[in-house]
Amino acid sequence: MQFKLAFIGFGTVGQGLTEILIEKKEMLEKKFDFHWRVVAISDVMKGSVYDENGLNMNTILNLVKAGKKIDEYPIGTKGMNSIDTIKKTNANTIVEVTYTDVKTGEPALTHIKTAINEGKNVVSTNKGPVVKQSLEILELAKSKKVHYGFEGVVLAGTPALNLAKFSLAGNVIKSFKGILNGTTNYILTQMEAGKSYEEALKKAQELGYAEADPTGDVEGLDALGKVVILTNIVLGKKITWEDVKREGITKISKEDIEKAKSEGKRWKLIGCAEIRPDGSVKASVRPEKLPLDDPLASVSGATNALTYNTDELGPVTIVGPGAGRRETGFALLIDLLEINNKNK
Amino acid sequence: MQFKLAFIGFGTVGQGLTEILIEKKEMLEKKFDFHWRVVAISDVMKGSVYDENGLNMNTILNLVKAGKKIDEYPIGTKGMNSIDTIKKTNANTIVEVTYTDVKTGEPALTHIKTAINEGKNVVSTNKGPVVKQSLEILELAKSKKVHYGFEGVVLAGTPALNLAKFSLAGNVIKSFKGILNGTTNYILTQMEAGKSYEEALKKAQELGYAEADPTGDVEGLDALGKVVILTNIVLGKKITWEDVKREGITKISKEDIEKAKSEGKRWKLIGCAEIRPDGSVKASVRPEKLPLDDPLASVSGATNALTYNTDELGPVTIVGPGAGRRETGFALLIDLLEINNKNK
Prior knowledge:
2 copies of one chain form a homodimer.
Chain A: E1 2-8, H1 12-23, H2 25-32, E2 35-43, E3 47-50, H3 57-65, E4 77-78, H4 82-88, E5 93-96, H5 108-117, E6 121-124, H6 127-143, E7 148-149, H7 152-155, H8 160-167, E8 173-179, H9 182-192, H10 197-206, H11 215-218, H12 221-233, E9 244-246, H13 254-262, E10 265-275, E11 281-291, E12 303-310, E13 314-321, H14 325-342
Parallel strand pairs in A: 1-2, 1-5, 5-6, 6-7, 9-11
Antiparallel strand pairs in A: 2-3, 3-4, 8-10, 8-12, 10-11, 12-13
């Protein structure tokens, strides 16, 4: 397939994808018959440019890296806003990578629905719309015969959704359990190595794993969003934010860590959900003491892991990165390759 | 797609697949537009039957479970040998599940090549032909525009090959490392719990994990075959049996286990391979002492695990069952679903 991409937002994730696309252009063409050009970019801060024949993305990356605006690109139409970029360009696939607002899902929600209604595919790493309305948007995409991909919202480029949908196809998955947030796992790993919660958080902030306001991570909100998504998409059960019991890691003390150690166990922030025999869903995010032979217990640092309980194979676990600029950019390529496969 | 299946061999794995196909018939039709019937079975011990309109597989399973011959099936053509069943029936897909001979690959090798030359897809859990000639057979299948699937030869139904081919597509994988044999991992886990090698082996034999002659497992031959397959298929480098350094677990003593424990480590039989900078391959099967925070260290019992080192995501590990009648049968369904996807 010949992808004509438009980026809505062009931050680190969009740039990460662009680097991968440039570096792997030949491999993608040869191995997957995957062809691409970027025809438009619209970013609230960095400006906009559109050229129906395709932009030189090396030039664009150089502009951005030099701290310049995309508008300085030598040719093309400038100044189009995100909606016009979606509606009025010849792009056939929209890469939606604006900032995330999990409360409203906006502005991504509007971008994604607009694109689908225009008959354009969307790939996005934006968690907001997926937490809010994934099933509705997937239904809309189906009715418009386009694709809405969001592999990156769960474990960045670690193919958690793709694994469930394709590699484990034919299984019935009735529950899952995972380490779905790298920041808290990094903090817990540091505490295990002897640091206090405050020291561990400070180090996580220094390394860029935790934000200045770490609430979203340490109170389990990020993991909660992923539990909602996995329940909706993999278990096939509609639940919302309010249906998940939540407890963060802020109450775990050095003493708790030591006590677990003496029991041969390890604290992990676990997100999980299961379909009960009556069809209802039990879902939670909370710290759990795992025995050391649990596959999730040895997952250390910022790494993520997810165990699906399948009917044919029993537990199947995937372990990989859960964040990162290039890793999350790669998740978008997983989605694009799925579209490519569908349109062969 | 409408599959017309012929089973060559009808032991536990073929029966396992049959049970899954019967139980999941409706789900497979609805969710994947996957339709099947079995038109023929040819088994050296159990007999043969062919009906171009399809066999009642519940009847067949009942005959087999009662220890009766398949020839007692009320209608159809009886007595066809495997080659005639491949060539002269209306089957479009051959399920090759005869016994494994890793030295010659026969009789499976002949069955598989015959089927492909007849323009029929083949799915097989038979390791022999894959170790011997996977790349050549895949080339032949490509030229005949049919599919040769063998997901089950590595980690049974745990989708190791499918993960690398689809979910991790776009990555370059230059090395892997795994626990590729459940029997030895079970023995090592038992030794860790205090048993001697002899006691652990005896228990593994009682549970059916190890054969009366356990050489293939404990000397690392089974794992070696999987290293060859993964190197050929995932790393894309042709190597053979002789290119892999091998050491089994028979020399590991109770003292070695205790010493590792005191160092915070654990013995595992590790199969691995990597492409060196000059393009050559370094491959081995040997016991290694892993630190407890290695994702492979916590994999206990008969479970298998495999870590791919990818260029975009770093290490990605999958953990799941590596054996079992139904699990291996399920691997054939993974291959059939891939064919179904290709032919949509």
